[in-house]
Design brief:
Layout lengths: L3 E7 L7 H13 L4 E7 L1 H4 L6 H17 L7 E5 L5 H10 L4 H5 L2 H7 L7 H16 L4 E3 L5 H18 L7 E3 L35 H9 L18 H14 L3 H6 L7 H27 L2 H30 L5
Parallel strand pairs: 1-2, 2-3, 4-5
The protein binds tryptophanyl-5'AMP (TYM).
The site of tryptophanyl-5'AMP has 26 residues, from strand 1, helix 1 and helix 7.
């Protein structure tokens, strides 16, 4: 029986934070045995906003090291850099030609990122079409992402269906796969906004995967909560900070909601909760940080893993592009 094909991506646009890990990477690692996996460092997506060239180069390598350190096994997953497989950009152009601009202008992330800007790049608007190309190029049927990417995966489905309607069955229809818990980890400094790589330099906002024990402890201890002392999941908006901490605890330990809450029945307020949450985060992230450091000290090995990943991806992508060009009526070389 063939394994179902999974594709997902992550931008090298800032320090990988706990939300990226719990909402996406951890799930990729946990399910890698059961799937045919493609994980992509989407460097071209990162360019939709200006990136300092020297910094970008480092961020790409650092992100690759984090993905392997988190447990992606090169024997089971093709981990590669998007710009190393030129078919992503090529397919993007072809899909641009069948995608109505109105579909892109409606994307929430585009509206958020472009609002108040004097000028935005065409790339920012076109971002979801490149994302659709990433997914459709491999006929991926499962796309494991955090909640914020759901709308983009749904757009990839619309583009897929439109292409298949115009040119006949060509691409497999992808499905977003969103974790039940961990899909939206909120900022420690403000539990009403999503934790984001773009703000990971702001003190107290995020835990970075490569933070030290002290940094983790400090950030969690400073997490914004309400003035109550009951440690329970609740729909009350005032409870957002506590929900976030409990959610993080739950996704890392894998315990049920009831078991998570029962750990804190006799706690003396939010201080205890914060210490316990920091402990489970430290336990989860410290081995990753150690493997990350080892990998960063061996850049040749990292390059080799990435080039093997790109080779596997390229062999599928090249074949798919031939099929796509044929359907459209382009002349083969
Ligand atoms: P990116 O780089 O912003 O985020 C990578 C993954 O992390 C998830 N994530 C979160 N999950 C839970 N809580 C959070 N606070 C949080 N912040 C981020 C994201 O949902 C994502 O799964 N456009 C994508 C990258 C991409 C892609 C693709 C994904 C490009 N091509 C094709 C899937 C398939 C992005 O910017 O992810």
């Amino acid at each position: 029986m063939s394994l179902s094909r999974v594709f997902s991506g992550i931008q090298p646009s800032g320090d990988v934070q706990l939300g990226n890990y719990l909402g996406a990477i951890k799930g990729w690692v946990d399910r890698q045995d059961e799937k045919d996996n493609f994980f992509c460092i989407v460097d071209l997506h990162a360019l939709t906003v200006y990136q300092d060239p020297n910094n970008l180069n480092h961020q790409i390598k650092s992100l690759a090291a984090i993905l392997f350190a988190a447990g992606l096994d090169p024997a089971k997953c093709s981990v590669f850099i998007q710009s190393h497989v030129k078919e992503h950009s090529e397919l993007c152009w072809l899909l641009n030609c069948i995608t109505p601009i109105g579909w892109l202008e409606r994307m929430t992330q585009y509206k958020d990122k472009s609002s108040g800007q004097e000028s935005v790049s065409t790339g920012l608007l076109d971002y979801p079409v490149l994302m659709a190309s990433d997914i459709l190029l491999y006929d991926a049927v499962e796309v494991p992402v955090g909640d914020d990417q759901k709308q983009h995966v749904e757009l990839a489905r619309d583009i897929c269906q439109r292409f298949n309607n115009i040119y006949g069955d060509t691409f497999a229809l992808p499905e977003p796969v969103i974790p039940n818990i961990g899909a939206r980890v909120m900022g420690f400094d403000n539990p009403l906004i999503k934790m984001s790589k773009s703000y990971s330099h702001i003190r107290g906002h995020a835990i970075r995967i490569i933070d030290t024990e002290d940094e983790i402890l400090r950030t969690v201890k400073r997490a914004v909560t309400d003035s109550g002392n009951e440690i329970k999941f609740s729909d009350n908006p005032d409870n957002a900070g506590v929900n976030n901490l409990l959610g993080i605890y739950k996704v890392i330990t894998g315990e049920s909601t009831k078991d998570v809450e029962s750990n804190f029945i006799n706690s003396r307020g939010y201080g205890d909760l914060k210490i316990k949450v920091a402990e489970v985060i430290i336990e989860e992230l410290q081995p990753i940080r150690k493997r990350y450091r080892d990998l960063m000290e061996n850049p040749d090995h990292l390059d080799k893993l990435l080039s093997e990943g790109a080779e596997k991806a390229r062999s599928l992508a090249e074949k798919k592009m031939e099929i796509v060009k044929n359907k459209i009526g382009l002349v083969s070389r």
